[in-house]
Design brief:
Layout (H helix, E strand, L loop, with lengths): L1 E4 L5 E4 L4 E4 L22 E3 L5 H4 L2 H7 L5 E3 L1 H9 L7 E3 L5 E4 L2 E8 L6 H13 L1 H13 L6 E8 L2 E5 L17 E5 L6 H12 L3 E5 L15 H10 L4 E3 L7 E2 L2
Helix pairs in contact: 6-7
Length: 257
């Protein structure tokens, strides 16, 4: 089983027979190379973690470019996408607790929550927001039109005894016992400079064998910026030297060990 990061929270998982795609998004930053919509075609299924625009904005164009791929999501993004012209028959409703089989993959849906944006992160992007106010206004409008309404899910993907636990934003739900000792934890690092602190208890409890960090890129300025993952990497190396820490390169396959 191999995993590929395409920028932001977009991840592909491939077992050589079946290809899954999670949260496909064509980034809105002309200064960086980004995967075009055509690069997201040819997958067997698409899964969405929640309804924010950096997770679902590209879906209408993608289902036009790829006429057969099914999309799996909860009810709020389904409503948003049907309102944006995506045929309802292309959208498959899921909820926490569901288990699906796609090819050789077994996918379990878990309840999760969205990270809380911290004041320091907000302050660091404020100057750009002032300068790029027209774009900020449009992004605020898109955020309102594409809500998540606390419908955040994470996915456990299993194939041949290997397990990946994938999040689109990090904030676990109290009282939920998540998968222990997964082979790879895909950790969304966006929206906060305190991800090392916010994830420490989760990592201590569930002890993944490896962590792949994503959602740290400047995907849609002015709201986003590049977020360093070095402090997170150092904290994990200190507390859990046995955990493999992966900072992915875009469009480069990584073997799930």
């Amino acid at each position: 089983m191999k995993i590929t990061w395409y920028g932001t929270a977009t991840v592909g998982i491939d077992d050589g027979e079946t290809k899954l795609l999670f949260d496909p998004f064509v980034r809105m930053n002309k200064r960086i190379d980004t995967t075009p919509i055509e690069g997201f075609t040819g997958f067997d299924a698409i899964f969405l973690t929640h309804g924010h625009f950096d997770h679902i904005y590209s879906i209408p164009a993608l289902v036009q470019a790829d006429k057969n791929v099914p999309v799996y999501c909860t009810k709020t993004p389904k409503k948003t996408l049907t309102g944006r012209g995506v045929p309802e028959e292309r959208l498959n409703l899921i909820q926490p607790g569901d288990e699906l089989q796609v090819g050789g993959f077994k996918i379990r849906v878990w309840q999760f929550r969205h990270i809380v944006f911290d004041p320091i992160y907000i302050l660091t992007v404020t100057p750009k927001c002032v300068v790029m106010f027209p774009r900020l206004f449009w992004q605020a409008y898109m955020n309102k039109k594409m809500p998540e309404k606390k419908e955040i899910v994470a996915y456990e993907i299993e194939r041949d005894g290997k397990r990946v636990f994938l999040t689109g934003s990090f904030r676990d739900t109290p009282g939920v016992d998540y998968p222990h000792d997964v082979d790879l934890f895909v950790l969304a690092n966006g929206g906060s400079v305190f991800v090392p602190e916010k994830t420490a208890g989760f990592i201590d409890k569930y002890t993944p064998k490896a962590i792949l960090v994503d959602h740290f890129d400047n995907a849609f300025p002015p709201v986003t910026r590049n977020v360093s993952v070095k402090r997170l990497q150092k904290k994990i190396a200190k507390n859990h030297p046995e955990i493999r820490f992966i900072i992915p390169e875009e469009r480069k396959e990584i073997e799930v060990e």
